[in-house]
Each structure stands twice: as structure tokens, then as C-alpha cells.
Amino acid sequence: MSAAVGATIPFAHLMPGGLIPAALAQATAPFALPGKEDLIVLNDRPVNAETPAHLLDDRITPAKYLFVRNNGVPPFAANIDPATWTLEVSGESAARTMSFTIADLKRLFRHYTYQLQIECGGNGRGEFVPPASGNQWAVGAVGCPEWTGVRLKDVLEHVGIRDDAVYIGYYGADTHASGDTSKATISRGVPMSKALENESLIAWAMNGEDIPHMNGHPLRLVCGGWPASVSGKWLKQIVVRNQVHDGEKMGGASYRVPCKPVAPGSEVPDEDMCIIESMPVKSVITYPKSGIEHALGGRLGVRGHAWAGDLSVKAVHVSTDFGATWQKARLEKPANRLAWQHWNAELDFPEAGYYEIWARATDSRGHAQPMVVPGWNPRGYLNNACHRIAVQVA
Ligand SMILES: Nc1nc2c(c(=O)[nH]1)N[C@H]1C(S)=C(S)[C@@H](COP(=O)(O)O)O[C@H]1N2
Ligand SMILES: [Mo]
Hints:
The chain contains five helices and 26 strands. The chain has helices at 2-5, 22-25, 102-108, 152-159, 192-195; strands spanning 40-44, 47-50, 68-69, 86-90, 98-101, 111-115, 118-119, 142-143, 146-151, 167-172, 189-191, 201-206, 209-210, 220-222, 235-241, 256-258, 273-275, 282-287, 292-294, 300-307, 313-319, 327-328, 330-331, 341-347, 353-363, 387-393. The protein has a five-stranded mixed sheet with strand order 5-4-15-10-11. Strands 6, 9, 12, 13 and 14 form a five-stranded antiparallel sheet that branches. Molybdenum atom binds next to loops.
């Protein structure tokens, strides 16, 4: 909210939840994020905003169209100085504790640029029945910008990892929404196997520019293909752990799902919940925009992206008859591992009327997206049901 009004709000703790500041109340949209005006704001405290599907059309997601998911209060932009920012690497399974400035990282380690897909674990939550609490994301809590930084593994190897290391965890500079400075907003992580992958980056740039403030400027972790909650923003510390990291939002129902399917609405005992790792196969239709009119007789070009967590996408199919028949789309290879893949197809319509275009991706292990919302879980994660759009043929 401070970012939107362009100043700190000293009495923020006294503002009624959901109140739109008068400074913004006259704007066309009730509330827009600076630099991300076209996103749909789902929540202003903390700030959460998603991208309409048709604005995800770019092959590389531009900064203005990358969603924002905050769990707490971001550090105030004016207080961030990349020149003095430090990253500490420590923890019981680190051989020593070391601190790096961003200049140190840039000087000591080789730079890598990868296009890496990040998707909120709760993307698609809005479709679960019974409803799951949390941001009611539709399809747009996903993006695939190009990130530049150093490999997490190079930094960890420089510091030294003890033999008993099993997990890394991150801490960021954002603060807890309650104002309690002793609490972390979120502190998640990944097993060493994911941390040591070539594509796991400590990034200072996105699309060749500074990372936008809301996306973690000046430094963030990017571990593509996993719930984006493992990609710590405003990165201040990495801990190397001798146990599964037990930071904020690693336990309970946070980013965990029943290890085995349960009936919708079930109470699931804690020991039957498993941490989400690689995200499931999914796709989005980015062109045309849902609801367009199309002239009968002409073919309609459709396109979008597909991704599959740690895996790749093997095929995308599209349907105009509610899934009765499917047509294979053209599918491109990813720019690099963990980048989304572009697909396109040309469609014919037999007569005038209302149609839906459905898209269904299949991953390299043969798992396809379900047509209906899959496995209910208490917090509404991992909805990878087929995306569909409406077309009026006249
Ligand atoms: N420090 C910090 N890192 C964070 C978060 C956060 O609230 N604080 N949110 C996480 C979650 S849940 C998601 S989905 C992604 C969102 O990244 P984005 O806002 O850049 O799209 O950041 C992750 N990293
Ligand atoms: Mo998330």
C-alpha cells in the first residue's frame, strides 16, 4: 500500500482492512501497483496481484506483467541500497558463516542467465470446492522472465557444505504483517538436490534490468519449477540445514498437501501432509483473449505456454468441443531447462455460436492436465486443470 501511495503510511496499523486510501479512490481501477497497472489486485494487505491470461502472451514475461505475491510487508523501497545490501550464508551445515555484498557475488562467481518459470503454489485456488482460504488466484500467478545472477551451488560450494546438509532455507528483508519484528513472514527452502541444480540462481536482474521492487529487488532466490514460495525475495540470508528447513510456512497446511488423495473437505492429520516439490504440468491460453468474437469461415490462431515443474512438456492438445476431440498443437522446445514452452494451433469452427477453447498439456512422463479441478487439499494448491477461454463465432 505504501508503494502505491508513494509514501510510508504511519498509521497503517490503524487502517481498516481492505480500506482503499482516498489518494487512490478516484483512480479508474480501485487500486493499482506502480509499474504493474494492468494486474488484477486480489488483496492489498499483503499486496497480491495476478496477471490476466491474455497479458501473459509474451515469450519472456515483462516486469509489468509478472504477478506479485507478498506474505508480509516488503522492505520500504527508499531504504534499499544495493551497494550496501548483504547476503549471509550460514547454518549448522555450512562450513563457515560468510557475508557477501552484491558486488562480491558479481566478482567472485560466474554469471548465468536463464528463463525460469515461477508459479505460486496456490495459482488456480479460486476453483476449489469447498473453497480453500487464501488468495483466490485464477490462472495468472505465473510468469517466466529471464533471470541473471550466480548459481546458488557456486556460492554454497565457496562457503562449504558439511556432509550432513539436507536442505537450504532463505530469509528475506520483508517484515511480518502483524508488525512483530521477531517473526519471519515466510522462510522456506529446498532440499540440497534442488539447491545444487545448475538453474537455481541468486539473481540481481530480471530481463536485463534491476528486479522490480515488488518481485524482490535487489536480490532474490530463483528455483524454477517449484512453488514460487521457495524463491525468496529481498534475500538477506541463506541457511544450510541438517534437517528439513523448519522456517515460517514450511509446516502445517502451508505449501503442503495430503500425501495421498483425500475427500474434499477432509481434516488431514499433520503427519499425512507432504511438502510440495516440483509443480504439476500446466498450460495457459494467452491469445486470443477470452470472450472475443471471431468471423465464421476464417481460421483462428491460438497460442500460449506450457510448463511442467522439473520436467518438460511433451505435447499440448487443444479442443473446441468441450474435450470430445483434441487437435495437437505445435510445441516449441524451452529456451533452457525450467523455462515454459510456447505452443500454437489453428482452429476451424463448423458453424456460428458459442465455443470454448480448451488446452491440455502432457509432461515428459505422460501425465496430462485434468479437465476438472484435481485433488482437493486444505489450502487449495496445485490446481492444474485445463485453462479454457470463450469464443463467439458470428
Ligand atoms: N521474502 C519473501 N519471499 C517470497 C515471498 C514473500 O512474501 N517474502 N512470497 C513467496 C511466494 S508465496 C511467491 S508465490 C513468490 C512470488 O514471487 P513474485 O511476487 O515475484 O511473483 O515469492 C515468494 N518469495
Ligand atoms: Mo505463493
